[in-house]
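Thread: quick sanity check before group meeting

JM: Hey all, I'm pulling together slides for Thursday and realized we never actually wrote out the predicted structure for the chain we discussed last week. Dropping the sequence here so it's in one place. If anyone has concerns about the input, flag it before I start.
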Amino acid sequence: MVTLTAKLTIKAGKEQEFEETMKRVVPEVRKEPGNRAYVMCRSKDNPRVFLFYEEYVDQAAFDEHRKHLGQLGVNLAALLDGAPVLEFYDKIAS
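JM (edit): ok, ran it. Output follows.
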């Protein structure tokens, strides 16, 4: 199992575009065969910061997810203000 959080800071003025895009993308990611969770949250303190909680059955499924985002037309480079902060976790209980 691959479990991670991805914290993304979006460029000023692009928050709404990012949110609308990702609201369409989240259900498509959830259909990926190896996906077990894909939850999008927005910071209450900073509307430019979004957090994703993600789970995949294995590394191969996570790698396929990254390819799939590109196929869905998500151009993160145009929206991000800096690199995403990824943190990987060992799942202990659910």
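AS: nice. Residues 40 and 52 are 5 Å apart (CA to CA). The first strand starts at residue 2 and ends at 9.
JM: adding both to the slides.
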